[in-house]
């Protein structure tokens, strides 16, 4: 097995993470504009891309394991860090650079998604606060006569005043 497949998988993972980051930027804008319908379709697109990324990662992992097995190195994890130890000298630096670029893209994506999560949480808090203002707590709405004890009806008083 050639290292080419591993390099191609890593490059594809970087590209897919960049695409996901672009979707995340769009998601931020949609959250700010409160465009639920567009957000829903974007989430479907995001889900499809994530499945493709998972397939690419499985292919990279499988190729890494195969490469290590061919060299009688049984490393069950199949990580890029393990692979670098067994690669010829000319392939190490380019693979490490790909790994660093992938980690950079993953970090950028995590930061953007954390911001999106905070925006959504703030939006939910605002909606909850608005709902609380529109529909106050039923316990706080009931009027009780100042002379009554514990909210019980005092003798002679009823909920309906027939003399009114």
TrEMBL record:
Superkingdom per UniProt: Bacteria
Gene3D superfamilies xrefs: FlgN-like
Residue ranges of the region described as Disordered: 143-164
Coiled-coil segments: none
Listed GO biological process terms: bacterial-type flagellum assembly
Pfam families for this protein: FlgN (PF05130)
Keywords of the record: Bacterial flagellum biogenesis
Compositionally skewed regions (Basic and acidic residues) per UniProt: 143-152
Listed name of the protein: FlgN protein
